[in-house]
Specification:
By secondary structure, the protein is of the alpha+beta class. It folds into two domains: about 35 residues; about 100 residues, Immunoglobulin-like, CATH 2.60.40. The chain is about 20% helix and about 30% strand. The protein is built from two helices and eight strands, in the order ααββββββββ. The strands form two sheets. It has a four-stranded antiparallel beta sheet, with no helix packed on it. Strands 2-8-7-4 form a four-stranded mixed beta sheet, with no helix packed on it. β5 and β6 form a beta hairpin. It is elongated, with a radius of gyration of 26 Å. The model has no long low-confidence stretch (mean pLDDT about 85). This is Ig-like domain-containing protein.
């Protein structure tokens, strides 16, 4: 028998074998565990900020971005973020793990601002920061 016929028969046998395998069934465990795996940490803390803590020469009209280690419960942000010295009203919100804030008007030149996240801000899993957490930056 020629070699190509042997390979042809071998390939047919292989694919016939695959057709006989049972189809996998959905598992409730996969549905329950998958959302937990998408988080980057079992702790709820600040992962990074823009501007970075201690940054200088920051624009007078910055977009402040705070990335958390878990998705944020947006309703917990109400009155739980502050800025000192007094910033113009901070507008924004959260999407998944990212909190985005923009001052309603320009910040003051050469001023060091401190953004504080209150300990009561929660992740979607009910974890809180546990302690007030701050970072600072200085404008141009």
């Amino acid at each position: 028998m020629p070699t190509w016929k042997k390979y042809h028969i071998l390939i047919l046998v292989f694919f016939s074998f695959l057709a006989c395998l049972p189809k996998p069934k959905p598992s409730l465990l996969g549905v329950l565990v998958l959302p937990l795996v998408t988080q980057t940490s079992s702790n709820f803390t600040i992962e990074s900020t823009i501007p970075a803590n201690g940054a200088t020469g920051v624009s007078l009209n910055p977009t402040i971005t705070i990335v958390m280690t878990q998705a944020v419960e947006t309703t917990s942000l109400n009155t739980n973020i502050s800025c000192s010295p007094s910033c113009p009203s901070l507008n924004g919100g959260a999407s998944n793990r990212t909190i985005t804030l923009t001052p309603a008007s320009a910040l003051t030149t050469g001023t060091t601002y401190t953004i504080t996240l209150n300990q009561n801000i929660q992740s979607i899993f009910g974890l809180t920061l546990g302690t007030n957490t701050s970072f600072s930056f200085t404008t141009l």
